[in-house]
């Protein structure tokens, strides 16, 4: 979730690929951490490779299908 002021909540999401130790210790009160990639990080790295400093990807990236792992597959991963 992202919030830019009154009545502005949105469902945009981001997958960060920086080292966990480089993330801010405290969120700014407008963004929420809600998950972690536990499978398919190779796909995330392929998407990351299409990025540029301008923020515009070199090629169109489309998520055509997604889902949720069953509980046993996610077991043992700590939530932030």
From TrEMBL:
Q: Which PROSITE patterns match?
A: CSA_PPIASE_2
Provide a Gene Ontology MF annotation, just one. Answer: peptidyl-prolyl cis-trans isomerase activity
Instruction: List UniProt keywords, sorted A-Z.
Output: Isomerase
Write down the superkingdom of origin: Eukaryota
Q: Which InterPro entries match?
A: Cyclophilin-like_dom_sf (IPR029000), Cyclophilin-type_PPIase_dom (IPR002130)
Q: Any coiled-coil ranges, and where?
A: none
Tell me any Pfam family this protein matches: Pro_isomerase
In terms of PANTHER family, this protein maps to: PEPTIDYL-PROLYL CIS-TRANS ISOMERASE
Q: Which family does it belong to?
A: Belongs to the cyclophilin-type PPIase family.
Protein name as catalogued? Peptidyl-prolyl cis-trans isomerase CYP20-1
């Amino acid at each position: 979730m992202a919030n830019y002021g009154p009545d502005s909540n949105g469902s945009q999401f981001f997958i960060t690929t920086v080292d966990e130790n480089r993330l801010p210790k405290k969120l700014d009160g407008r963004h929420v951490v809600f998950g972690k990639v536990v499978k398919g990080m190779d796909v995330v790295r392929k998407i990351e490779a299409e990025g540029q400093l301008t923020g515009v990807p070199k090629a169109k990236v489309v998520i055509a299908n997604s889902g949720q792992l069953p509980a046993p597959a996610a077991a043992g991963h700590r939530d932030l």
